[in-house]
Amino acid sequence: MADTKITALAAITTVDPAADVLPIVDISDTSMAASGTTKKITSNQILGAGGTATLASATITGAATVGTTLGVTGVSTFAAGTALLPALTTTGDTNTGIYYPAADTFAVTTGGTERYRVDSSGNVGIGVTPSAWLTAVKALDIGSQAMGIFSGGITHNAYFDNTDGRWEYKGNGAATYWNIQGGIHQWYVAASGIANNPITTFANAAMTLDASGVLLVGTTTAPNVGAATTSSGFSINGSGNNAYIASKIDNGTCGYFRRDGTDGAALNFYKANSAVGNISVTASACTFNSTSDYRLKESVQLLTGGLARVSALKPSIYKWKADGSNGEGFIAHELAEVVPAAVSGEKDALNEDGSIKPQGVDMSRVVPILVAAIQELTARVQTLETR
To answer: Which domains does the chain have, with CATH numbers?
Structure first.
């Protein structure tokens, strides 16, 4: 069969597709392999199993059964808006397939509805036509409010309009933007707005996590403790032994600690794994507590010499340089000579930048000495009274 030249299709009565390959040529062709001649497969004609057909310019009409693999080679050109690969189904669903909705753009439909599109700039839309994003940025828009995914971050209900040069709401509602650049994470938020209107609050990040692990809230510059800064906000700085929390505001309260329900600690303080104190609240008062449990102490003795030490104290009045206000109390290094436990820091110490590293005092440490002095005076008075 393979070596038989066909002169008329009518002469072929039966073909076994399992054993034979049927070469099909135009009946006007006098050669077995004419070059450039149109080959046509019409309704009900079969290519035998295992055969290979090269269709340089072919039209397939009528119903066709396609096996498990369909290979298409070469390049085909289709006009905008025409089907590229219509659905290959046994039901003949003409509403499903891949097509060109515009020049250099392709889309996928199912059930007559577009589900997916890639535009000429490489932007991708799933369930929505992709937006025009930043120049050289490829975006992925998902859903009616456009969850956008691009090389710099992720957005919800927001996109950058290249034409207007600004961030805009994709649809009605609130918007967010998570920007990731150079190891820095920045979050931008916007209250509910109207589709296609500008998003002005994206000018400044609401929260930033920088590459060194510093978390900034309401600011882009850390309000470092003891350092001059014009930025108000909240930050968690560093990690491990260098971590600290800073809060700065020009007017108002820098922080709140609230306890509801029962009375008790609103803030606890630890040295390593040991509790050393807390700030506790009731419905009407606040107390500052240092650890003082007898089980934590040894070699306990009565305090003596209180009156002599009180006599050595040098209470003073003064003006504060910062604002000229009046003050009364003790000079730290002078108090340290009498009650060392009441003073922290070192006299004349400086920070690395040359600024003053001030000493501090804890007046509660003076109270036991005052009590001891009162007791000594009381004993003297009682002695005099019995004479």
So the answer is: 1-74 (no CATH), 257-299 (no CATH), 301-387 (1.10.10.10)
